[in-house]
Amino acid sequence: MSSSLELLQSRERLRVAQRFLRLRPRIAGVAALGNAAFLAASAAPAAQKAALGLAFATTIGAFFAEAAVLAHRALSERWLLVSLASTLAALGVGALLSGGLTSPILPLLFAPTVVGFAAFARARPSWLLFGETLSLSLLLGVVGPLAAFPELPAPTVRGMLGVSSAASLVLLAVGVIGLVDAHARIATELDRLRGDMLHEAERRALSVEHLGAQVAHEVKNPLTAARGLVQLVQRRTTDERDQQRLSVVVTEVDRALRVLEDYLSFARPLSDLKLGSVKLLPLLEDAAGVLEARALDKRLTLRVSGEDLEVVADRQRLRDALLNLMLNAITALPSGGTLEVSATRVGPRARLMVADDGPGLPPELYARLGQPFASGNDGGTGLGVMLAESVMRQHGGQLRIENEPGKGVRALLELPLGGAEPRAEPS
């Protein structure tokens, strides 16, 4: 992206600079004719008039020759720098021939310097041009008016100063306004490129997500079949060591299946929501019923409470989110612990709470919560919390995890009452 931006900026700058260099001979030519007319009508020495006339003619001739070449070839940054630096040198000579620091052509020095800054910004070429302008000013101040080329008469200076100032302003307008427009075009093009990249990234992420879900689904089926065959062999073998080995195989296959299930649960919310009216208390009782046997195996107390609230949501997605958070709590709780799930109203929102009185989460794990494989349970993937966060975002809600080491963890799922428009989950 940075290389594309640099190429785009360079292309636009050079395009505007080439136009500036092709228009410059006409503007400078008019200014040279005006200054020559004032100079010819003045009482300046003949040698001074001839020297300045030659300087004007040489400079304008070089401008026209450059414009003719640029009509058939592209401009480079080096060419632009050399052209602007040469222009400053020519103007310095002209100032030296017309009174030094009191020269009426001094305003023209600003045009190449300012155009250089507009073209190169803070890059090295800008400072080279600035240094040349400063050096020329110091040189003119030290040398002063030459004996053969004294200060011009006051009326001539006023006339030439007006012409030079007007020409300088026109040159600045052509160069700077053109470069400002170029930067605006660069910004527009950059926004388009950024949009194209984001669209492509989203398309590829969605494609990878769908492919991953398909691969996980395809891998899950043979794993399930392999597990059944291993169990069948395990039942028929009488060797105790073989029994242990096959038991390890079953355990590892179960672990792989859990990872795949977690991934599939996380991938499913990317599909469209199926919205409907959902009563939260029956939803909590349903989820508690599913996990009741596991809670009893660990001698846990499972409580359901709350208000009779109703939301517009995808029931299956909310159920998946609750089950994942409740299963995390059951796995982490020690024997004899308590798990409480409830539904309450908090202003315009409904809050589902999954709270346990376990040991809580270590600070380093709590800081990483919601990232893949950030789990305090052996073999956990961390996708359960990610799934719940995704579901909440889709429903225009949020998930907060409150942790008190030694006192337990509270997962708070909040979503709008009454059916706020759900948001699409970004890839």
* Separate helix tally: 11
Helix content: 55-70%
* Quaternary organisation: single chain
Distance N to C terminus: 21 Å
Structural category is alpha+beta
Q: Count all strands and give the number.
A: 7
Largest sheet: 5 strands, mixed
SSE string: HHHHHHHEHEEHEEHHEE
What integer is the average pLDDT?
A: 81
The general outline is elongated
**Spatial order of strands in the largest sheet:** 2-4-5-7-6
Tell me what portion of residues adopts beta-strand conformation.
5-15%
Contiguous low-pLDDT stretches (5 residues minimum) are 420-427
Number of domains: 3
Rg on CA atoms, Å: 40 Å
Describe the overall structure:
- The radius of gyration is 40 Å and the shape is elongated.
- It has helices at residues 2-40, 46-70, 77-96, 110-120, 124-143, 154-236, 240-267, 280-297, 315-332, 363-367, 383-394, and strands at residues 276-279, 301-306, 310-313, 338-346, 349-356, 398-404, 408-416.
- The chain has 11 helices and 7 strands.
- Helices cover 65% and strands 11% of the residues.
- The strands form 2 sheets. It has a 5-stranded mixed β-sheet, with helices on one face.
- It folds into 3 domains: 2-197, no CATH class; 216-268; 273-416, Histidine kinase-like ATPase, C-terminal domain (Heat Shock Protein 90, 2-Layer Sandwich).
- It is an alpha+beta fold.
- Strand 4 and strand 5 (349-356) form a beta hairpin.
- Mean pLDDT is 81; it is low at 420-427.
